[in-house]
């Protein structure tokens, strides 16, 4: 009986409950809101004010500032709840006067992908390497070389942070239930607090890539340089592991490699000769450059074709919003750059030109003074780029570089004696230069897949022409003697490249692609003309080779503390009757011990299908680019590296790295051979051998605050081993330098005054010099004391060291804001304490003065003055 009563009571309660629920479902309160657009917090508050309904939810379920738009004045409760919460993945349940909010499909969150471009608000240019972070999940990615990003996250509301060093950070709250495109514009701000700026970059301890550094155009311009000309390659020489060649030159030698082992890319196009003024300046105009990425080891699989370094230079894209210009007038060159929109927000251009004007002054002065010798030199270069945005999915770029150096010498001499009159006119004309062109199409196939198709052309050409025209008048008769020699060498490339970025999740960034390259080499040919013989041509014929590569790499976030970049690069080359191929595995790891300390390792195998025959230690333009052949194999290298990276006080970055590199199938001229030995093919003038390089590098860097700069130190050892050179014994490479130190500082003394300082030190390079000389004797008669009668005793190739090298450069700049823009005066001192550093040393048998060796030094203290402007 008691059991029956209990069941009746429960039935009655259930009936009342069901009845109440039914009534509640049928009875929908009508809601009238005070505004057409209001936040969720405001809407919930107005619902509670109009009814006796309460809401139950977790604070983190949705942001209170999320806004909803209302398209009518009156809603019933269900309509409002669906409108407000369904788009953000929140479900609702009503129990009497209580609305319970919860996450849909809890435990099975839908994944979506956010993608788009990050650009500069003022110029519209892409921001490369900007940081995009899902702050709720604490993971993020960086934008690629074209400012594109792809971030996979959960569909419920996420707070996404966009940041880049020197720009105001920006945050967006995402409410999408599917893949979406978000293009973000960041505003530059130079006076940000340091702790804000730090958030705009990827800390060095988090990067998987080691042995690399990025330099902005502004950093390059702030470094004091020879004759006040900002120089990309000279700035790179100040980094550890990268050494300069002869005094004042722009040649670079990375971790024991030669000048040909550096892959120098300008907007993705290889540049074969990177020097103006016989090597003293680089061909890259800093005003036309956006940024430079330098990689010394642990090469990502997307790069290949060289052994020692990648120098990836990206030109400015041009301002999409406003017209701007800048330029400078200095000791060396005058330059001018303009950029602006062709169609605002859609199409932009950048044009930049530079030229020396020494020839316009030297030649007229020489002619006015009736000088017998007239020497003229100038260089000029031009950078241009057009950028067009078709849509959020398609962009196209066309960029080009044209550069040329021209040297001319004219000597007129007249000699007369006892009725004999001889007039001689000698002319030497030398020119060299590059042409590069790239046509690039970016396409977003879907939010996770970004593609890049590039067609490129590159040409380097060197020409040397000499002539001697002699007129002899004697006894009323005239004889003409004429000789002319024309020498030319060039290399041309046509290439098609495909590159893809695929981001399947927040833990993987996959890159893959390939390229095909057609090389056409003309290693060197000479044409002789004279009054006695017909034209004769000597030298190597044209040679065509084909090169290809494919690659795949994945940047993997294995765990919160461990990152990995693993990939493979497969390349090949077809030449004459031989096909060479190479499989090159690559990896870089990063284990983050703490938030401020990580350990990194890397391995990279590289192959190179072109060689450079270096004619002299100075690196003149007579150096010849040559291909692999049936007899000359590709250069190959294996490099391992390990190191630590640390961040101190969020201001200083410290990296310490050790490396070891093996190189095979290197080439050198035979002893005594040179580029003008026209009787032999170049393959008969070379020796083939191996090389080893290892060292330790230290870099302390500060990029924030009034004082910025870096301190670098390198200890290294670089050797070569050729069977037929140095009697088969191992010898030091010509640019083996045991110790190398560089200090670079920039200090903002006042808002309009900046100070710059560079101090470098390097132990002496090895040279080949005799340690003893003997006087030649013929029978019992001693020969005269001159060069031809001396026997020199050489202890070995590169067995002697020249003096250590060091110098101090200073600069101060004064800027002022004008109505039309900004002007800046830059005063500099190169080699401030006038150290006479050796460029090279030669033997001089002057026994009377006991000066057996003579040192040539090029640059004492050199002041510079430059006027720069921007508008």
From TrEMBL:
Compartment(s): Cell outer membrane
Membrane topology classification: Multi-pass membrane protein
Domain TonB-dependent receptor plug, residue spans: 228-306
Origin: domain of life: Bacteria
Stored Gene3D superfamilies: Carboxypeptidase-like, regulatory domain, TonB-dependent receptor, beta-barrel domain, TonB-dependent receptor, plug domain
Keyword Metal-binding: no
InterPro entries found in the cross-reference section: Beta-barrel_TonB_sf, CarboxyPept-like_regulatory, Plug_dom, Plug_dom_sf, TonB-dep_rcpt-like
Keywords: Cell outer membrane, Membrane, Receptor, Signal, Transmembrane, Transmembrane beta strand, Transport
Pfam families: CarbopepD_reg_2, Plug
Protein name: TonB-dependent receptor plug domain-containing protein
Organism whose genome encodes this protein: Agaribacillus aureus
Origin organism lineage: Bacteria, Pseudomonadati, Bacteroidota, Cytophagia, Cytophagales
């Amino acid at each position: 009986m008691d059991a029956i009563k209990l069941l009746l009571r429960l039935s009655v309660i259930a009936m009342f409950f069901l009845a109440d629920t039914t009534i509640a479902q049928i009875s929908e309160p009508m809601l009238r809101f005070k505004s057409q657009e209001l936040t969720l917090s405001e809407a919930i508050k107005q619902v509670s004010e109009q009814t006796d309904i309460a809401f139950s939810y977790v604070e983190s379920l949705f942001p209170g500032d999320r806004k909803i738009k209302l398209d009518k004045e009156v809603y019933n409760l269900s309509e409002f709840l669906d409108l407000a919460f369904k788009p953000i993945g929140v479900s609702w349940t009503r129990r009497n006067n209580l609305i319970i909010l919860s996450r849909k499909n809890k435990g099975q969150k839908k994944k979506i992908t956010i993608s788009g471009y990050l650009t500069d608000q003022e110029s519209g240019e892409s921001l490369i390497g900007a940081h995009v972070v899902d702050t709720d999940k604490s993971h993020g990615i960086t934008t690629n070389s074209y400012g594109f990003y792809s971030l996979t996250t959960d569909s419920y509301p996420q707070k996404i942070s966009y940041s880049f060093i020197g720009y105001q950070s920006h945050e967006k709250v995402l409410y999408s239930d599917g893949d979406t495109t978000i293009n973000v514009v960041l505003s530059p701000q130079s006076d940000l607090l340091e702790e804000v700026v730090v958030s705009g970059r990827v800390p060095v301890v988090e990067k998987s890539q080691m042995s690399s550094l990025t330099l902005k155009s502004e950093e390059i311009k702030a470094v004091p340089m020879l004759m006040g000309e900002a120089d990309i390659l000279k700035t790179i020489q100040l980094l550890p592991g990268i050494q300069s060649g002869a005094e004042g030159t722009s040649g670079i030698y990375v971790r024991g490699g030669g000048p040909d082992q550096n892959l120098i890319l300008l907007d993705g196009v290889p540049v074969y000769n990177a020097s103006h003024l016989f090597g003293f300046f680089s061909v890259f105009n800093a005003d036309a450059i956006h940024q430079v990425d330098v990689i010394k080891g642990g090469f990502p699989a997307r790069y290949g074709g060289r052994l020692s370094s990648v120098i990836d230079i990206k030109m400015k894209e041009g301002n999409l919003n406003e017209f701007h210009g800048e330029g400078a007038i200095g000791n060396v060159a005058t330059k001018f750059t303009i950029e602006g929109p062709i169609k605002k927000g859609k199409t932009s251009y950048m044009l930049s030109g530079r030229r020396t004007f020494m020839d316009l002054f030297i030649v007229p002065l020489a002619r006015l003074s009736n000088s017998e010798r007239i020497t003229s030199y100038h260089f000029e270069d031009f950078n241009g780029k057009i950028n067009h945005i078709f849509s959020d999915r398609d962009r196209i770029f066309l960029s080009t570089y044209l550069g040329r150096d021209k040297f001319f010498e004219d000597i007129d001499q007249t000699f007369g004696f006892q009725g004999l009159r001889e007039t001689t006119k000698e002319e030497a004309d030398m020119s060299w230069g590059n042409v590069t062109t790239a046509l690039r199409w970016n396409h977003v196939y879907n939010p996770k897949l970004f593609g890049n198709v590039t067609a490129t052309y590159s040409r380097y050409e060197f020409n040397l022409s000499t002539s001697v025209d002699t007129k002899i008048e004697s006894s009323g008769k005239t004889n003409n003697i004429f000789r002319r020699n024309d020498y030319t060498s060039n290399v041309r490339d046509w290439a098609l490249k495909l590159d893809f970025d695929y981001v399947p999740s927040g833990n993987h960034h996959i890159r893959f692609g390939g390229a095909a390259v057609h090389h056409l080499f003309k290693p060197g040919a000479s044409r002789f003309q004279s009054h006695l013989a017909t034209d004769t041509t000597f030298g190597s014929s044209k040679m065509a080779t084909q090169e290809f590569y494919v690659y795949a790499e994945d940047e993997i976030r294995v765990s919160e503390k461990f990152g990995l970049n693993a990939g493979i690069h497969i390349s090949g080359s077809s030449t004459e009757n031989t096909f060479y191929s190479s499989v090159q595995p690559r990896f870089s790891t990063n284990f983050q011990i703490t938030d401020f300390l990580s350990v990194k390792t890397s391995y990279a195998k590289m192959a190179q299908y072109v060689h450079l025959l270096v004619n002299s230690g100075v690196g003149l333009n007579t150096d010849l680019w040559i291909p692999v052949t049936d007899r000359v194999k590709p250069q190959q290298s294996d490099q391992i590296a390990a190191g630590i990276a640390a961040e101190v006080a969020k201001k200083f970055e410290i990296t310490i790295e050790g490396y070891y590199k093996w190189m095979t199938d290197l080439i050198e001229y035979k002893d005594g051979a040179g580029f003008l030995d026209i009787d032999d093919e170049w393959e008969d003038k070379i020796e083939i051998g191996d090389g080893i390089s290892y060292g330790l590098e230290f870099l302390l860097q500060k990029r924030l605050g009034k004082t910025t700069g870096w301190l670098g130190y390198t200890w290294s050892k670089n050797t070569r081993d050729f069977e037929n050179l140095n009697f088969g014994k191992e010898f030091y490479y010509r640019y083996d330098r045991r110790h190398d130190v560089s200090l670079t500082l920039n200090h903002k003394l006042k808002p309009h005054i900046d100070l710059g300082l560079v101090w470098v030190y390097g132990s002496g390079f090895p040279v080949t010099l005799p340690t003893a000389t003997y006087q030649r004797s013929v029978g019992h008669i001693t020969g005269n004391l001159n060069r031809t009668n001396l026997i020199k005793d050489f202890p070995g190739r590169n067995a002697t060291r020249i003096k250590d090298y060091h110098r101090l450069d200073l600069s101060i700049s004064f800027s002022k804001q004008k109505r039309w823009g900004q002007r800046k005066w830059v005063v500099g001192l190169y080699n401030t304490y006038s150290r006479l550093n050796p460029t090279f040393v030669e033997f001089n048998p002057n026994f009377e003065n006991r000066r057996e060796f003579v040192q040539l030094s090029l640059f004492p203290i050199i002041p510079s003055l430059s006027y720069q402007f921007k508008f």
